[in-house]
Amino acid sequence: MIEKTWWSIAIILGLAGLFVLAKGRQEKSAKRGTAAANAFATDLTERAARGGLDKIEGREKEIERTLHILMRRTKNNPLLIGAPGVGKTAIVDGLAQQILAGNVPEALKGSRIVSMDLNAIMAETKYRGELEKRLQAFLAGITSEKRTILFIDEFHMLAQVGSAEGAVNVAEVFKPSLSRGDLQIIGATTWDEYEKHIRPNAALDRRLQPVLVDEPTPELAIRMLKALRPAYEAFHRVRIPDDSIEAAVRLSDKKIQGRFLPDKAIDLIDEASAKVAIDCSRSHHATSMGVVHEAAKHAEDVVKVRDIEDVVDQWATHPRSPLLSK
After folding, report:
1. Among the CATH numbers 1.20.120.30, 1.10.8.640, 3.30.1250.10, 1.10.8.60, which is that of 218-315?
2. Where does the AAA+ ATPase domain lie (predicted)?
3. Distance from C-alpha of 317 to C-alpha of 49, rounded to nearest angstrom
């Protein structure tokens, strides 16, 4: 009887040891996954809480459409499709700000949006299967934390990388989590890349819902730039009047080819503001040294239309520059 009791105790202790060992391995795996997630991702809702995201204007319809898809029972993974520079990433930033403000359906309150750095994950992966293992560890960390939405810019790279290297398509790593509903993603890509890399992958494509992001009209682009104005004024310590914003949109829309609003107009404002800030800095330095040049006398901390025009002229460094239209 005593011998049987000892055997029972030994079996119980053995099972308990196996349970503790399995739990320890599971916790270590979760910690590795969380570490991988932290290393290769940026929490956009946390950045929004710190005031690190720009104010978004003029993309209310696209943000609303994205919310509708996220709230679906199936096929609840939005794919933002649009030309480079039209503001696909800005839509995700706007959504993160709405989640932070609680201006979302109850099911999404308390969620966070995490942006995945796919290039960082791909870096220094030399051997077959190494990239897949790194992605699996990353996804383990993401899916271990509830109410996390994963944003993947350049989403087509998931399908592109595998075919380019001749390895297992890395998009396959995502499919089990998407099928089980353990993972929600927001992707962003262009029409060309979608047609070339995503649409042919029917198993991946059917789990996504497209959100079309068109280039804004000049009028809407002006609204967008006015919303961004305080951030650029604070950064460069200059003033940007309405007519300079309107000139940036008008000139970029008319003269700059191969790029899209609002990105190309924002670049004009940014560079013109930097130019004015440098001129003012030199003026202040010259004044403090008691040496005031003629140009320094007229330096102002205001971005004027001529400053925008100067930047456009500088971009066209050659008469046949493909950047500018005739």
Report:
1. 1.10.8.60
2. 74-214
3. 42
The CATH homologous superfamily to which domain 39-212 belongs is: P-loop containing nucleotide triphosphate hydrolases (3.40.50.300)
pLDDT in tens, 123-175: 867 766 788 888 889 999 888 887 899 999 999 988 776 554 455 567 788 88
DSSP string, 137-185: HHHHHHHTSSSEEEEESSTTHHHHHHHHHTS--THHHHHHHHHHTS-EE
Give dist(CA 242, CA 232) in Å, integer.
13
Q: What is the tens place of the pLDDT at every residue in 170-201?
A: 778 888 888 888 899 999 999 999 999 999 98
pLDDT for the residue 274: 97
Asked if 81 contacts 199 with a C-beta cutoff of 8 angstroms, the reply is no
CA dist 257 and 252 (Å) reads 8
SS (H, E, C) 2-69: HHHHHHHHHHHHHHHHHHHHHHHHHHHHHHHHHHHHHHCEEEHHHHHHCCCCCCCCCCHHHHHHHHHH
- 196 alpha-carbon distance from chain centroid: 22
For 94, the token pair is 């706007």
Q: What are 150's two structure tokens?
A: 């994963």
**Which pTM value belongs to this model?**
0.84
CB count within 10 Å of CB 32 equals: 14
112-116/78-81 β-pairing = unpaired
Structure tokens at 275: 């130019």
Cα atoms found within 13 Å of the Cα of residue 103, Cβ hemisphere only:
9
